[in-house]
């Protein structure tokens, strides 16, 4: 069995007051995804998320208010034959959001409407997946979405 190289990332689930998800597209890529990025060697996932949101969107988040949703594994959107191990966090943001650094485009996407843009596998499979569309009752549990729950 072939092993795929793993990219460890931290990613934010950010919603507005209408329930839309903030997605970003990095410069030179096609797929929209959660804001966040790669963990530096020895860096904790939450510290990486705080750093990445500051660098890429100009956001300052309160780490104590970030809610860990667990770990998701998906194909990498921009690195062929790689997997991402994504530590997902739900965060609240206040203030302006702007595309900085390697972010070329921002998009607020309503999860109830079909996406008219390409989505990263992580976003499509774990974040915007609609249980209603799959014929199962709505669930809010991260375990029902296939996430490995966070350790407490």
Walk me through the topology:
Layout: E1 6-14, E2 21-26, E3 35-38, H1 45-57, E4 67-75, E5 83-91, E6 103-109, H2 121-127
Parallel strand pairs: 1-5
Antiparallel strand pairs: 1-3, 2-6, 4-5
Mean pLDDT: 86
User: Can you tell me the CATH class?
Assistant: Alpha Beta
Quaternary structure type: single chain
CATH architecture: Alpha-Beta Complex
> How many strands, what sense, and barrel or not for the largest sheet?
4 strands, mixed
Number of strands: 6
The CATH topology is what?
Answer: Nucleoside Triphosphate Pyrophosphohydrolase
Supply the number of helical segments. 2
Q: Over all CA atoms, what is the radius of gyration? A: 15 Å
H-E order:
EEEHEEEH
What percentage of the residues does DSSP assign to strands (E)? 25-35%
> Helical proportion?
10-25%
Shape: globular
Under CATH, the homologous superfamily reads: Nucleoside Triphosphate Pyrophosphohydrolase
Structural class computed from helices and strand pairing: alpha+beta
User: How are the strands ordered across the major sheet?
Assistant: 3-1-5-4
Our count of domains comes out at 1
Distance between the termini: 33 Å
| Unreliable stretches covering 5 or more consecutive residues | 130-144
